[in-house]
Prior knowledge:
The complex is a heterodimer. By secondary structure, chain A is of the alpha/beta class.
Amino acid sequence: MKWGVVRFPGSLDDADALWALGEVMGQEAFALWHKEESLKGAECVVLPGGFSYGDYLRCGAIARFSPIMRAIARFAAEGGLVVGICNGFQILCEAHLLPGALTRNRSLSFICERVSVRVENAATPFTCAARKGEVLRLPIKHGEGRYVAAEGELDAMERRGQVLLRYVDERGEATEAANPNGSMRSVAGVANERFNVFGLMPHPEHAVERALGGADGLKLFESLVLSRSSSQLREESAAR
Amino acid sequence: MLVKVFVTPRREILDPQGRAVEQSLRSLGFDNVSGVRVGRYITLDVRASSPDEARAEARRMCEQLLANPVIEDYRFEVEGS
């Protein structure tokens, strides 16, 4: 599968995402410069973490206007798979490709730790290699990761299964104490209505080898590979 | 024309920065303070033939970039109008 990892001025985790996908998973992964207007045949686009454009004005607000984002908006409108991690999640919200917004952590502190997240919906291209209810251990590192959306919109998203990941404690329960940043309803990751765009604050690309303290992040990337190959199989059998 | 834009977190959105500032003011002895909200103040020079035109432009700028309507309210003043 071909993966394009976007590189904005100020991106930090692009190299780790390329390492995770290319070296660890053996996928075809390449960087996409923010000034480019072509996705070079990528079947999934990853917007990595970092501080794109210095996080000026609001996190993700300026990156949204870069040429590559126009291509990504078109790609997403055609059903293409897009994943935004941390700053990438913020950019997707600012670009209105995902609902809601990410605001300053409740504690006002930058948080860097390993957290538990529960898979709330495993019937999506982003989570299908995991089980519903499965708890993954993933690192977070952000100052502005508190997810907010209008209550009514959150209700509708929950009904449609768009909340894919929630912060939980070691028993798998979404308690306030286990909510690191004060996100509404402990939301850690959401998809759009069409389930082809996904944003999450935890970093799966930093959890792909035991030497890094865990490999649970692979589950999310493997889901995309799995869903891509099963949709190809469907296309092939339909063509036969 | 000089346009002053004020962006603040929406009422229903928790503003931890405002809360921290409020607590600090209280610890300085300002017991009479409440409802502190921390926002952003932006000044712009807008080329426009009338204050109304400048206002319309400022509104579009706020909607499209200067504020995020999901979490922020905005208001603006056009200087000299």
